[in-house]
Write a structure and sequence with these properties.
Glutathione S-transferase Yfyf (Class Pi), Chain A, domain 2, four-stranded mixed beta sheet, 9 helices, 48% helix, globular, binds glutathione
């Protein structure tokens, strides 16, 4: 079957982009990453494609999609219908949605924001972002102490949606040492076939004085 090329606009250091890349890789869907730095995201041309000026933006033929979690849902339904990535069963589907909401909520305002502040790409109060991260990580640690994956007995798009910014949390001064079940879950995701890590960011010691190793 001749498929149009899948094009992903994003950046290597964006966890929102990385979560989409993880699913594309795991589904073995070839794609082209178009680097989209901040200056380009502010341009009129890009805003025609992505009205909020955000990455990731996915193009699949004539279809254009923004919002990383919406893109994960699309890819799972379009290219992996009936697979474990996005279950149909009512309870499992609700649990996937719950963790997608957390990925767009506490995860974005906690570890992702703390990292963006440390990287100098966002202003804000790092202490408040780290406090949100600590509450989320404590909850995730309790949750994952009793199960292998976030939403079901197997990996789903919820795990991919949450993985990237938790894995990179130490870059924002959020240490993971106190959360053994979360660290074990990260290693489980990293063991999935075709996993590819995000590159490490350059964090200046002044920007993230409390940054600790994973
Ligand atoms: N809800 C969106 C959030 C995406 C997002 O915040 N992307 C950031 C980069 S990681 C962005 O494009 N921010 C606008 C900018 O930096 O110009 C999603 O899940 O895709």
């Amino acid at each position: 079957m001749n498929r149009p090329e899948i094009v992903l606009h994003g950046t290597a250091l964006s966890g929102h982009t990385h979560r989409v890349e993880l699913l594309l890789l795991m589904l073995e869907l070839p794609y082209r990453l178009v680097p989209t730095p901040a200056e380009l995201r502010r341009s009129e041309g890009f805003r025609q494609l992505s009205p909020l000026g955000q990455i990731p933006l996915l193009e699949d033929g004539d279809l254009r999609l923004t919002d990383s979690n919406a893109i994960l849902v699309y890819l799972a339904r379009r290219y992996a219908q009936g697979s474990h990535w996005l279950p149909d069963e009512a309870v499992a589907a609700s649990q996937v949605q719950r963790w997608l909401s957390i990925a767009a909520g506490e995860l974005a305002f906690g570890p992702a924001t703390a990292r963006m502040i440390a990287l100098g790409v966002k202003s804000g109060d790092p202490a408040s972002a780290r406090a949100i991260a600590a509450t989320l990580l404590a909850f995730m640690n309790r949750h994952l102490a009793e199960r292998a994956y976030l939403a079901a007995a197997h990996p789903t798009i919820a795990d991919l949606a949450c993985y990237s910014y938790i894995a990179q949390a130490p870059e924002g001064g959020v240490a993971l040492e106190s959360y053994p079940a979360v660290r074990a879950w990260l290693r489980r995701i990293e063991a999935l076939p075709r996993f590819r890590a995000m590159p490490a960011a350059q964090v200046s010691p002044a920007a993230a004085p409390a940054a600790l190793p994973r």
